[in-house]
Every structure is written in structure tokens, then in C-alpha cells.
Design brief:
Helicase, Ruva Protein, domain 3, RuvA_2-like, DNA damage, DNA-binding, four-way junction helicase activity, cytoplasm
């Protein structure tokens, strides 16, 4: 069982990287978010590994942090969630975003991940919410940026009423939302950013 591998990245594809150490190249499946952070890095990197064994295949899944790997393992421990679906979730959201959606019981947001319907999203919330309710942000401590507060949710609903799709509205709000903002300010700023983007 691998804990982590330290080496140099020698190749990328859309869903994996090749990590070389001691003249061995390991092909490792990684979330899109991890790939984005690793591209252009020339120094040695540490990738936390989950080894998945099936009858006909042994695969290595890699993550930028132990917390991401823990979430992956918790996800695949849920009935009906395989490695592919778990990687889709980790590629769609940052760790803090996903945990924010769990804590807010936001099945609509979670169901925007590929292969995850509302029924599955509700099962994820049911099985994981309590496990992650005390999670603190691993970056700047501001979990409010994942648009999980009630004000942010109301802003998303208001933008939906203005004919934006749920995923569009969610992205707009997440881009501008800061914990403690007033509802009208969130909506105004989201619309202003969208307007400048559309020009």
C-alpha cells in the first residue's frame, strides 16, 4: 500500500499525470483541480496515493492533500459511488466547496457533478454531512466563500428567477460572495460581474 510518492511530473493527460521517481514512472489518476495546481511545477511534488485493486486492474489515484484523499475514500465507501464518480466530484468542486454544500444540504449544487443525480446527492448528504460538519477550511479559514450561507443560497435562487441556470447562478454568487454580505449586495455584484464578462 502506497502512502505517497514524491517525484517529478514528466507528463500530463486530461485526467492523469506521470510521476517519475527512482527511474520509475507512475501513471496516477488525479482530479482536474489537482492537475490544474500541478501544471507548470518543475520541482518535486508529493502526491498522496490511494491504490484501487480490481480483478483485472490496479489503479493509482493521487491527491494534493490527505484531506482530499480522505474525502475520496469516504465517497467510494458509499454504495453506488465508484472511483469514477468520486473523481468527478473532486474535479467539480474544491474540498471546501463540496463540504460547504454538504453542510448546507445543497443537493442541487452537488448534483451538478458528472454522474450525480439528486437522489445520489441526497444520499451523499445523509451519509457524509455529520462526518464533515466540523471541517475547517484548509486554506484561508473562510468557508463562506463556497456560497453556503443562507444569504448566498437566496441569491442563487433570485438569480434563477432572473432566468439564469442553477449552475450559472451558483458560479456567479460564489465569485462575489463574502461571508456576512447582504442579499441585495450579493445579487448586484453578481449581476455586475456577469455584465462585464458578457461585454
Amino acid at each position: 500500500m502506497y502512502e505517497y510518492i514524491i517525484g517529478n511530473i514528466t507528463d500530463f493527460t486530461e485526467d492523469r499525470l506521470v510521476l517519475e521517481t527512482n527511474h520509475i514512472g507512475y501513471s496516477i489518476l488525479v482530479p482536474v483541480t489537482t492537475l490544474a495546481n500541478m501544471q507548470g511545477v518543475k520541482d518535486k511534488v508529493k502526491i498522496y496515493i490511494h491504490q484501487h485493486v480490481r480483478e483485472d486492474e490496479i489503479s493509482l489515484y493521487g491527491f494534493g492533500s490527505k484531506e482530499e484523499r480522505r474525502l475520496f475514500r469516504d465517497l467510494i465507501g458509499i454504495s453506488g459511488i465508484g472511483p469514477k464518480a468520486a473523481m468527478g466530484i473532486l474535479s467539480s468542486f474544491t474540498l471546501d466547496q463540496f463540504i460547504g454544500y454538504l453542510n448546507a444540504s445543497d443537493e442541487k449544487a452537488i448534483s451538478t457533478a458528472p454522474g450525480i443525480g439528486k437522489k445520489t446527492a441526497n444520499r451523499l448528504i445523509l451519509e457524509l454531512k455529520d462526518k464533515y460538519k466540523h471541517h475547517l477550511s484548509t486554506s484561508d479559514g473562510n468557508t463562506g466563500s463556497s456560497a453556503t450561507a443562507s444569504t448566498a443560497k437566496e441569491a442563487v435562487e433570485a438569480l434563477e428567477a432572473l432566468a439564469y441556470s442553477y449552475s450559472e447562478a451558483l458560479q456567479m454568487v460564489e465569485f462575489v460572495y463574502i461571508d456576512g454580505m447582504e442579499l441585495q449586495d450579493v445579487i448586484k455584484k453578481a449581476l455586475a460581474v456577469r455584465a462585464s464578462y458578457d461585454q
